[in-house]
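2024-03-11 09:14:02 INFO queue: dequeued item Glutamate synthase subunit beta, len=496
2024-03-11 09:14:02 INFO validating residues
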Amino acid sequence: MADPKGFMTTPRQEWPRRPVEERVRDWDEVYVPGALLPIISKQADRCMDCGIPFCHEACPLGNLIPEWNDLVSREDWRAAADRLHATNNFPEFTGRLCPAPCEAGCVLAINQPAVTIKNVECAIADRAWEEGFAPSRPPDRLSGKTVAVIGSGPTGLAAAQQLTRAGHTVAVYERDDRLGGLMRYGIPAFKMEKHHLERRLEQMRAEGTKFRTSTAVGRDIKADDLRTRYDAVVLATGATAWRELGVPGRELTGIHQAMEYLPLANRVCEGDLETSPLSAAGKHVVIVGGGDTGADCLGTAVRDGAASVTQLDIYALPDTERDEDTEPWPTYPVRIYRLSGAHEEARDLRTAPVADADARLFAASTLRFDGDAAGHVRSLHLVEVDARRRPVEGTGRTLPADLVLLALGFSGPDRKDGLVDQLGLDLEPRGTIARDAGFATNVPGVFAAGDAARGQSLIVWAIAEGRAVAAAVDRYLTGSSRLPSPIGPYDRPMAV
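2024-03-11 09:14:37 INFO prediction written
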């Protein structure tokens, strides 16, 4: 503990964002470049070195947060990077994309603003790359065992890296033309620039991991053929089966899923397209869904140059402080008002004059869509709902809508490629892949991890699943494993 009074003398200070008027004109990350390092050592000083660090329990990776906070406060960046990478394969991803349940579990957060754990993590990761503290780690010798990992999102990449470093020959199969899963085509560049992803992929290639892009297992390669070619198979395909909105008018053109809209915008940033065929430029946009994917659509539509953007959230406007009765410390408060970078932009630019706060209409449920003579959506009819989602009489209203984006979450793995059926996998009632306590499916040698089996979750859970399934596969192949296994398949976040 570098400064035993740091939490009393130093106020919380976060990585500042660039001015709204500047950042909405580009796709770069929203934060001021270089503004984190000058403040982060003092912020790390705020760590209390508490007797029971609940931040450990709040993070499924088991990150050694007080240890690397202390090292950063002393500016021992090499040791901090070693401690961070001991539990997390990709801290530059989580430091940008994770909603930081660790901060919700920070002991200081009982009565003060939490330590800026996420910012410290990001600073360590970035410094590690700058100083060469994250070298490739190829295995000393090969085991002679082969593993196929299907899916290159955070779960698949974490599993592949762990298994490669353990000495197994690993090939990652990705159905898209580029690697990264939702980190590539779902997460906008203003939240995480893709060079962070490319850097890790190059590290993995240097370690010996093989990658096969534009290959949909089940369609381009039969699942049984892949199963016979490898000693083990890890299914990390994600939960990409999106939820639908069954209301009158859904068949109108101009109504799209968020994951139809966001990948095209990312392809523009990649240089594949000059403009997106679903661009929001000049259109009145309504986003149905109040989660992070909806916020990603919001920030993207603002940068597209939409005429207006409104986001609908079926839940009531939450308080700015946690409800200690329903979501007490140290649990992660889901229902709390948060202002993401996209919402800050929408608020300052007044993209939705009818909104309750920033660009959001709360307690709003969609009733129907109306269109023009050509069958294109032109308006959305909604109604206010109570806490039990029952319509409130006399609260109906109509919003102009030339483009509607559905961001309602995901129910399980997409079965259109045929992978699930070809392998004969058992499924849970909710549509996810069934597995036992060792991450194994009902098919011998086939394991499942990440959102495909757990259901839609956070990036820290995805990476933790990848590390845990790697240990399970290593044990299956060799009889034992020294790889860390931070979670089990049935573990869940802290709750009341």
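2024-03-11 09:14:37 INFO annotate: Residues 47 and 116 are 9 Å apart (CA to CA).
2024-03-11 09:14:38 INFO item closed
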